[in-house]
């Protein structure tokens, strides 16, 4: 793993990949590099204009790339269902659950969920479940969920998943990122119990310069916070090209293990991909089962072909 870069991505020809949030930041880089190495990549994005522009950019930078935009709004479960139903491929080798929102003012999704929990966790939970039959029938398939070191700030509160008692934007974000890791943990257990040839892994970009840091402040018109975030991106953060490497490693490197967590090597902040620290609670079987059950109830999505973990 030492010094691993995008040049080390194995040949992806013949493989189909879905990357959520592929219109910018690490999602765009992830999609571009998979396409550059031969994969047929579906850019699953909410905005058609930004998705089409990402498709154009990828094809301009990699003329032989097979990249196509398809609309997906993770804040609307009807959009998630439509995306899964309309995806025209029988196989699915890679599902990169990359899209996310961070530290937003309190909002609700189309289905009434707190937006950070709804988009970052529930939308991806539903998408993965709806695509699971294709993943299970594709040898060597992988599901990679993008979490954050910020998960360390808060545990999931299964009694208040939508932050109705009290909303604190950074706590809600941290809870959604803990939920990502608990989801991967429980999915990995269920895949192992079913003896499935699918790996569920997680990754995080460290501190990478993307639009994620400034979106919440911009929505509320908090210009001072927005400028501070922009300054941090310029002076401290690593570029999106580096931030995407842990996701690309988890998706393509040989020998990636179930329930692994990959991040930057240097102080889990920047550098080449390496195994990352994670809070012990993100491998709690009981909490994983509780979150899974609650997610099924809220999304009305069950995973065909997967029963309970052993």
From TrEMBL:
- Oxidoreductase: is it a keyword of this entry? yes
Pfam families per the record?
adh_short
Would you say which domain of life the source belongs to? Bacteria
Query: Which keywords accompany this UniProt record?
Result: Oxidoreductase
InterPro entries on file:
NAD(P)-bd_dom_sf, SDR_fam
Q: Does the keyword Oxidoreductase apply?
A: yes
Entry's family note: Belongs to the short-chain dehydrogenases/reductases (SDR) family.
Under the heading PANTHER family, the entry gives: PHOSPHATIDYLINOSITOL-GLYCAN BIOSYNTHESIS CLASS F PROTEIN (PTHR43157:SF31), PHOSPHATIDYLINOSITOL-GLYCAN BIOSYNTHESIS CLASS F PROTEIN-RELATED (PTHR43157)
Protein name per the record = Oxidoreductase
The taxonomy runs:
Bacteria, Bacillati, Actinomycetota, Actinomycetes, Kitasatosporales
